[in-house]
Model the fold of this input.
Amino acid sequence: MARILIIDDSEVIRNLLEEYLTDAGYEVETACDGREGIDRALGGDFDVAFCDIHMPHKNGYQVFREVRRRKPGMAFIMTDSLPDQLAEMAQNEGAHCCLTKPFDLNQVRRVLETLLAKARTV
Done:
């Protein structure tokens, strides 16, 4: 089963995604800001990161760029309440998509399943 990292400064979002994805059978870890997200991503073996765009210490785009530079195989799903230029730049550089908060958990499942299925065929 895939290992997932959730990087978000909102405790509510972290807990919601962690519980939902753990119940779905995934191994899940969380980070509460961009700096911690980079440390966890580089220190672990994750298949996918859900990464908020606007966070303290490092924004989601900075996290995406740093991690992808050192772990190019790690997939990213960006999240944000108001996707902006940072989300677009991450997608242009290889992030799978940007989910707009509040997102539907069925949408989370569909996007994740699509991304993982695509990774298996590569």
